[in-house]
Amino acid sequence: MVRLKQRELQILEFLLVQEEFMTYKNISEHLHLTERQVRYDINNIEKYLMKTDLDVIRKNPKKGIIVVEKADLKEKLQAFNQYTTIREYKYSKKEIQSFILLKLLVSDEIVPVAEFEDILFISRTTVLNNLSEIEEMLLIENLSLVHHTRKGFTISGPQVKKYNFFTRVLMELINIREIYSFVLNNDNVFSKQAELVLFNLLDLDILHQAFLECRDIEKYTGKVLDDRNYVLLLIVVMKILQENADWHFNDFIHQRQEQSEHGAFLLTIIENMSSHSDHKDDRTIEKYLAEIIDHISRAYHIDFYGNPAFISQLKAHIESMVKRVKQSIVVKNPIFHEFVSDYKELFLATKAACNNAENYLGITIGDQEISFIAVYFASEIRRQEDRKVKKARILIVCVEGLAISQMISTQIKKIFEYEEVKTLPVREFSKEHLNQYDFIITTVDLPDVQSSKILKVNNYLRKKDLEVLQQHLSLKLVMNEKNELDKFSLIMQTIRANTNITNLSKLELDLINILSKDEARAPKKDIPKIYFDESYITKKKDIPINRWDLAIKVGTRELIAKGLISENYEQKIITNLRKFGPYMVVAPGVMLAHAGMEDGVIQDSIWITILPNGIDINDRFEKPIKLIISLAFKSKDTHMLVENIAKLALDDEKVEKLIQLQSNREIYDLVSATLYS
Q1: How remote is the C-alpha of 500 from its chain's centroid?
Q2: Domain limits of the chain?
Q3: Which residues form the PTS EIIA type-2 domain (predicted)?
Q4: Which pLDDT tens digit goes with each residue over 165-196?
Q5: What's the CATH code, domain 390-474?
Q6: Is 553 helix (H, G, I), strand (E, B) or coil?
Q7: For the whole model, what pTM was predicted?
Q8: Which fold has domain 279-384?
């Protein structure tokens, strides 16, 4: 039988002994659940039962719910309980203590001892013994356990300390990926610990809504939070939504009315996240940062300034650290003892550097915070060591069709060192590929696979994408010791020392793109000829703005009529757009309509469709599509054509000129000049 959660089993067992219809309210009152929880669980129960061919639940809008054919269901449940139910799992002492602690930290009401007995299947004596040990833990955190006679227990202390402690305990007990998986993949968990905590402490509907609100908060602040702070934010927003189910962050931040305690706490978190800082504080932090980096650089003979992303991340961490320390927020590193044991010299060097630089900040930095800074240096040292000896095996995963993946492949091969670059459509990607490649570069979300190897990029690499890749891949021109461009790092150092440029990462990537243009030295390959002349161009004004499918068919119908593609190719383009969204829109107002070579390409060809009035496909650029380039390629070396087409699509001036040109001859001359440049 498909796995059921404990709360769902409880509801099923209750319904099995009822001889009449029960309303959601009846069930919630009997089982001490909310009606919302009951509705959600019963929907899940129905899905699970249908998968096992048990259609035994009947619903009546007025009467409620009843289980029919009880004998069959009882037999199934008996087998299920015998082998898979939570009752067969014995929780460890740490799991028991962590759950009790988490429940008390997040609860606003008194929690009775009986609740822990029922959920954990332990005796009252075991609960009380664990509470005694938990009381000692709380004292260290400046929190206190309060016993309410004949009622239960609560934890007393500032909310900021309670939620910070909750976040730390949660992340020590459960893998962070499981928390995200639970939110994103409809209650999907992989461990008994996650099942225990997430299904008994959190409401999935509220958690999912909180997750969406947290995205808006990140967008508002302009910063991407680390996992610890993100979980903290998630918990605070959940508490606000429990108080007011109609709450929305965008209304909250603009109204700025008198706030609840949780609302005030959220504003504090947002202030800490804010991209804007006092210029005086910013200069102080930059001095502190420079002092630490220079100290570690001298100790390890490594140029940390060569990775702007590292500098930026470390600075952001120190900014948050300073705010935490000033507000007396204590954060513990979950790997503190292991890290200090493995990297003792680096930790001591970082501690000495931090102590020397403390006069800039006017605060004292403890060992726990210092260890986080040392982790940043350890990661960067390891990255620089790895990139010197290892070239990456890269897999590019793209929605069906070679055009987009070929563009990305060409860009990566030009800029980065690599051992192997291969492409694969989404439909063929599996978890096994994680073992075969160092990095998976994807243009679409892969919700069923979570790995640090997966790097999400746009369908044509832009500066932000290149900055992300630069953190993981070795830049070709920096690392090639025999190349005359060896001095590139020294050039960048000179620029840093003599200018006030703020975005050095952008400058570095711009220079690399210029220096990569070595066509004058390398022999040019012949670009294959394709079916395309001035008759392969259509201007169409009468397409309704919301009929993007008709706009695509303008070009594909012509290619079908000429015997260059099959009807299946046209249908595949439209199906992919409906399934995966407007990923073929590579620039504002420009779409590259294509499918895979195996989907019906007969001869290499393109068709240009110009739509003066534009069509709307709800893409990220929010600009009407006025140029559709229909691509059908299958021959070797057509990737060079794809690269040139991409350059055309990204050239705003050329695109605008194409749309304005009147004659097909002029349009053909401009396009062909770009294709065969």
Answers
A1: 33
A2: 6-88, 93-272, 279-384, 390-474, 537-675
A3: 530-674
A4: 898 898 888 877 777 777 776 556 667 788 88
A5: 3.40.50.2300
A6: helix
A7: 0.42
A8: PTS-regulatory domain, PRD (1.10.1790)
